[in-house]
Amino acid sequence: MARSMIKHKNLPHKFWGEAVLTTSYILNKCPTKRLKVVLEEAWCGRKPSVKHLKIFGSLCYKHVPDARRTKLEDKSEIMILIGYHPTGAYKLYNPVTQKVHISRDVIVNEEDKWKWDKEPVYSSELQSTFIYPSSSDESDGGEEGEPVTDIVQNQGTESDGNMNLSSDDDDDRIHMIARTQRTKRVPARLNDCEVTQDNAVNDEGDLIHFALLADSEPLNYRDALKSNVWKKAMEEELKSIEKNQTWNLVALPDKKKRIDVKWVFKVKLNPYGTISKHKA
């Protein structure tokens, strides 16, 4: 089955690993000869959805968030569908940058496929750099008005990722990848100042760090129990829930799952920057 999926879209053999994973994913959603039903249906009592399944190796268009593009740049990138992620998103391969992306905002064109004979080859191996969608695009550029130096380094065909899938293409040429890195310069306004690293803390800095941690917010319920202030905040919250009759305790219906909840602790500040309330 994996070989058929690769041949159908004329994919290189380096995608055999992704094809095997996709095959297992699809077979787990098929009925078995013994049970006559899908394993998930036999366990949970409901049939799994298959409406998200698409043809392996199809061309797809991944949405580019507004924060990562300008008004004149394309709103989508052409990629190749190479599987499914446990979170429910699609695994996509960018044939230009040779990186694997995870995204839900995808339009799949199952009738088309990538023309590998016209692909600009950069490396003979599949890189395994996973890029997850983010709400904001972080930039490491220098400040406005300050020059930024670009350093170009050449690297070989060895991938920096943890997953290296070998290619069966017979190509004696070695393609080099140019990676651009940016270095920062200290702004001119800081020339008369003493600039130190954040981890180079002196005695005075230690006191500041301790002061910041003095009224820190607990990360979990156990940490909150160690403080009388947060205990009182939790008691007030529970009294408010009982008074407003936010919910009633009932038996869990059949074939239903509970929604997990957890305590969230916040320190409320007044306009002067001092603590006004501990909220749980």
Automatic annotation (TrEMBL):
<dbReference type="InterPro" id="IPR039537">
    <property type="entry name" value="Retrotran_Ty1/copia-like"/>
</dbReference>
<protein>
    <submittedName>
        <fullName>Copia-type polyprotein</fullName>
    </submittedName>
</protein>
<dbReference type="Pfam" id="PF25597">
    <property type="entry name" value="SH3_retrovirus"/>
</dbReference>
<feature type="compositionally biased region" description="Acidic residues">
    <location>
        <begin position="137"/>
        <end position="147"/>
    </location>
</feature>
<feature type="compositionally biased region" description="Polar residues">
    <location>
        <begin position="151"/>
        <end position="166"/>
    </location>
</feature>
<feature type="region of interest" description="Disordered">
    <location>
        <begin position="131"/>
        <end position="171"/>
    </location>
</feature>
<dbReference type="InterPro" id="IPR057670">
    <property type="entry name" value="SH3_retrovirus"/>
</dbReference>
<feature type="domain" description="Retroviral polymerase SH3-like">
    <location>
        <begin position="58"/>
        <end position="119"/>
    </location>
</feature>
